[in-house]
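Worked Example 4.2. Consider the chain below.
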Amino acid sequence: MDQYNVYDVAEKIFAAIQKEREGMTHMNVMVMGKTGSGKSTLINNMFNEKLADTGIGKPVTQAIRQYSKEGFPLTIYDTPGLELGGDNAISELLKDATDCIKKGVKSGKMDDAIHCILYCVNAGTHRFEDAEKEFIAQFLSENKAFNIPVIVVITQAVNKKDAAELKRIIEAENMDIIQVVPVLCQAVEITDEISIPAYGLDTLAEIIYRVIPEALQKTFVAVQKADIKLKTSKAQAIVVANAAAAAGVGAVPIPFADSFVLVPQQIGMLGSITAAYGLALDKTTIVSVVSGVLGIVGTTIVGKTAVSGILKLIPGAGSVAGGVVSGGVAAALTAALGEAYIGVMTKIAKGELKVDELGTAKGQEWIKDLFRERLKLKRNDKGVLLDKKDELVVDDDLPVAEEIKND
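Applying the procedure from the previous section yields the following C-alpha cells:
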C-alpha cells in the first residue's frame, strides 16, 4: 500500500520550498556606473528575476532607486541616469550612496544592509575616466569602515583584448576593490553565421559568492542564474547531507515495505534542491515534476514495495535477505533520487528541458535511465560516490567541495 501519492508529495515539497525561501536572508546589491554602462543588462542576466524591467523603482534617495519583487529575496539599489561629469554630481552620489549604506548598518539587521557593490564600466569607452577614478576612490575612503566588497565590472566587453587592457589600467590604480571582471552579458551577432558568445558572468557570480557573508550564500545561489555550476554544487552538498541522514535512519535495517520512514528526509531534500535552483515553481508545476520524476524514480518516496529489481542495481545490496533497507542502501537510494532530481533541475534551469516534457514517454524514459545509472554507482555508507580506488569523487573546483568532503 502506498503511503504517499503524487499530490501528497507535491504538496509537501512545495511546503519545503516555501520554508527554505522564507529562511533565506534578504540580499541587497548596489549597482553603480554612468548612463550606458550596461547596468540593467547586467542585472537582468545575472539574476533569475529581471528586476531592471519592473518599471519605476522605489525612490530611496534623490538619486538611488530600489528594485525588488515580492517573494524574491533580492533588492537592487541602482543609480539610474546619473552622470559623473562634475563636482556636484560626484558629491551628491557619494552622499546618497553613503547615507543608504549607513541606514542599512544602523538598522542592525542583515536583511537591510548593503552586501555587495558592483561598479560598471563600459568597455566600449576604452578608458577609465578621471571622474570615475575620483568617485570610486572617495567612495572607498568614506565607506571603508563598513567593509562592503566592491567589484568593478567591465561590461559590453566584446573585444577581449581591449577589455583586458582596460582591466590592466583599472587595476594599476591599486584601489581597495575585490577584483575587475570583464563580462559580455549577451551574445553579440556579427553576421547570420557568426556571433560572439556571452562570457564572464559565471566568473563574476563565483567571486560574489566567495566575498559575501556566509549567511547570504544560500540566497545568492538561489537568486543568481549566471552560474549553473554553483547551483549544482550546492545541490550536491544537499544530497550528501541528506544521504548521510538517511543512512542514520537505516542504521537499524528496516523492511523495504516500511521504507516510507525515509519520505520526510527525501521530501526535505527535494525542497532544498528546488530552492537552491531558485526556480519559480507553483503547485501545479511541482505536481508535473513529481509525476515525471517520482512516478519513475521515487520508489522509496511513495512507499512502493515492488523493489527487488532496484535492490539488484545497488552495489552490494542485491543479496540482502528479505529486501531490507540498511543504512548504506537508504543512503544510496536517497543519493540516487537527489542526483536524478538535480539532473532534471539543471536541464530546466539551462532551458534544455521543459516541465511539460517530463510527462512524455521520452522524458520519463530519460529520467528512469538516469536514476538507474545513479543507483549503479559505487558509494560509501553515507551515499558519497567512490572511484575504483574507493576514494571520494569530489570536484575540488566546486565552491562547496569542502562541505561535501567534510560530511
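The two ends are 34 Å apart (CA to CA). The chain is about 50% helix and 10% strand. Compare this with Example 4.1 before moving on.
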